[in-house]
Amino acid sequence: MNVQTVAQDAFKNKVILVTGAGAGIGRQAATSLAAHGATVILLGRTVEKLEQVYDAIVASGGPEPAIIPLDLKGATEKHYLDMAATIESSLGQLDGVLHNASELGVLGSIEQTDMAMFDEVMKVNVTAQLNMTKALLPLLKKADAGRIVFTSSSVGKKGRAFWNAYAISKFATEGLMQVLADEMSNTNVRVNCINPGATQTGMRAKAYPAEDVSLLKQPADLMPLYLYLLSVQAQENGQSIDAQPK
Ligand SMILES: NC(=O)c1ccc[n+]([C@@H]2O[C@H](COP(=O)([O-])OP(=O)(O)OC[C@H]3O[C@@H](n4cnc5c(N)ncnc54)[C@H](OP(=O)(O)O)[C@@H]3O)[C@@H](O)[C@H]2O)c1
């Protein structure tokens, strides 16, 4: 895929929601979007982390962000409908959503799956994204160029032993993206998936505690693809794109 560089003001007058915006790739995406002019809605479960991102964006002269504290584990359909109404009344528009928040759960064999863990991972990584997308679609369809980016993983494209709920949730994410992209094909909304590849974050450290982190990409290295797929320039729809192609 040809990842076009976006202009420094590509997101001026755009409102973009980032889930899991307090850490890792989501934090970097939020600050990069703001640096390109976006009003960013920072959604996550740890308010302190969201406030730190808010402060960093304001300190660097970016548009004032909004904060939505929400734990996707406990969120209901009403939370998402209220959220959509609040975004519309306070910001007037929504141009893009980056579904980035995810939980790793517990790695281990299918035979030993802890079903409570499985339910939680599916709720956070799949059900919450469907529920949120459903509530936000009316706003995204009103935008000139609504953009939705889901976050996949290599283990959501080819199954790998012991990746359990996380891998299964990422296959489901790919499915949700494809179904929605097809439904949106005659609209101004474009829907795609990014597989970040190995990236130095808290989640990666949990999954691979012993690896040499100096060999990993930083979240900032991935940003050209994230910015492009969330921008007006992107015309791709229904694609699952590796940020670090082999
Ligand atoms: N890093 C990699 O190598 C890699 C590779 C492939 C795919 N990915 C995917 O990339 C995305 C970002 O991962 P990352 O590596 O940046 O992970 P991360 O550093 O662990 O960040 C994940 C973010 O999601 C938030 N989050 C988790 N559970 C949540 C919940 N129940 N409600 C609300 N927010 C929640 C976290 O909030 P708290 O900070 O408050 O916990 C955190 O801000 C994920 O979808 C992941 O699956 C990452």
Automatic annotation (TrEMBL):
Tell me which UniProt keywords the record has, alphabetically. Answer: Oxidoreductase
PROSITE patterns reported for this sequence? ADH_SHORT
Q: Which InterPro entries match?
A: NAD(P)-bd_dom_sf (IPR036291), Sc_DH/Rdtase_CS (IPR020904), SDR_fam (IPR002347)
The family note in this entry says: Belongs to the short-chain dehydrogenases/reductases (SDR) family.
From the Swiss-Prot or TrEMBL record, give the protein name. Answer: YciK family oxidoreductase
